[in-house]
Amino acid sequence: GAVVSQHPSWVICKSGTSVKIECRSLDFQATTMFWYRQFPKQSLMLMATSNEGSKATYEQGVEKDKFLINHASLTLSTLTVTSAHPEDSSFYICSAGGQVPGQPQHFGDGTRLSIL
Amino acid sequence: GDSVTQMEGPVTLSEEAFLTINCTYTATGYPSLFWYVQYPGEGLQLLLKATKADDKGSNKGFEATYRKETTSFHLEKGSVQVSDSAVYFCALSDYTGNQFYFGTGTSLTVIP
């Protein structure tokens, strides 16, 4: 069964709205989670590393004020897209796990965000 | 730094054909290697993994062998089905487990 749960799976909202996406680790505690963005027919682009109890680490070129990440517990990380605009429309995927040699990352089912 | 190079797609095969998707890597030390599969509109699912040289990962008829001498982890399946149509990602985690690197993905379409 799924070990990482992501919610919602699909969001459609108006431009200017803020949208929150949740990522939960179900079977284990995750001090670190990852947020990816995926454009159609392209690979995953790592946006940020979410660290429990501390600030997220953002990849170069990712606006931290636009994509707010909170990792308040060992099983939950949230990504909030603030004042979303059509160019923020994308498929967002979270993952957790790894961090130990040989252990895979486990992915959520992704959230399709459509901004009108 | 560490990296993964994956065969360009898209790949189109007839049902029951043999599949190979090439993946090579560059890494320091002894990385772990993974194949993930992504069906349309979904997240990535772990397909198989190998954590040391000469290990063979296998699942659902797919296989890949960790070849240190050629720094490769090619994905193979003897007879593909329409339901195997998806995007396949090769991935590497470094010897610490702290860094993950993904290939660009290979889209596979299997036609009846």
Salient structural properties:
heterodimer; A: 116 residues; 11 strands; 53% strand; globular; B: 112 residues; mainly beta; six-stranded mixed sheet; four-stranded antiparallel sheet; 51% strand
Characterise this structure.
The complex is a heterodimer of chains A (116) and B (112). With 116 residues, chain A is mainly beta. Helix content of chain A is 0%, strand content 53%. In chain A, the strands form two sheets. In chain A, strands 2, 4, 5, 6, 9, 10 and 11 form a seven-stranded mixed β-sheet that branches. In chain A, strands 1-3-8-7 form a four-stranded antiparallel β-sheet, with no helix packed on it. Chain B contains no helices and twelve strands. Chain B is globular and about 45 Å long. With 112 residues, chain B is mainly β. Chain B has strands at 3-6, 11-14, 19-21, 23-26, 32-38, 44-50, 56-59, 62-65, 75-77, 86-93, 100-102, 106-111. The termini of chain B are far apart. Classes of the chains: A mainly beta (116), B mainly beta (112). Chains A and B meet through strand 10 of A and strand 5, strand 6 and strand 10 of B.
Q: Report, as a whole number of angstroms, the end-to-end distance of chain B.
A: 42 Å
β-strand number of chain B: 12
What is the beta-strand fraction of chain A? over 45%
Q: Helical stretch count of chain A?
A: 0
Shape, principal axes of CA atoms of chain B? globular
Helix content of chain B: under 10%
What value does the Rg of chain A take, in angstroms? 13 Å
| Strand segment count of chain A | 11
Unreliable parts of chain A? none
